[in-house]
User: What shape does this take?
Amino acid sequence: MNEINRVCVYCASSAKIDQKYFDATERLGKQLVTNQIEVVYGGGAVGLMGKLADTVLEHDGEVIGIMPQFMRNVELHHKKVSRFHFVADMHERKKRFLDGVDGLIALPGGCGTLEELMEVLTLKRLGILTQPIVILNTDGFYDPLETMLERCIDENFMAQEHRNMWTFVREPEEILNALREAPPWSKDAIQFATFKE
Ligand code: AMP
Assistant: This one.
């Protein structure tokens, strides 16, 4: 079983999304606090990012925001989050997200969330990171992504083994178990990162 003490959560900045996504985010936030798990996130004050931070803070949990300075300059940072790291740019932010985290969680989101998720899947495929990655498929939001990844495997753009890099779950309460029970992954993944012939 994987020990999970700190997670990074990728999620939407938009506030104009259905309430069901906020509810799912709140349920996750409570679960993380109950299990004394620290949360690292993008530092935003609105959308699912804001909801996540608000929930964790309301329940006396630990949340760490990581944001590029240019976003602080336009006041996008969450004012109640006291543990903040302001970094030079988006690249450094994504690197810092991974510092000391035991698992990665993607909630529904737009291109920012998708990009962050695709980057960690790519790094995992190369064996550069080995942590479990769990994708919250609230109400089928991520069905098209799951279909896309399956197609990548079916058409040999990726190998069957790569399916072990991610877990899709429907409910926030399934996330922690999915992280804890994710198949082990090793740096040796570079050996089968792609088909040579
Ligand atoms: P998205 O899933 O497209 O909403 O992207 C989430 C990511 O977009 C965050 O991790 C940030 O990189 C960036 N982002 C966009 N808008 C904001 C905002 N208002 N506050 C903080 N981060 C934002």
About this structure: The chain has one domain: 6-180.
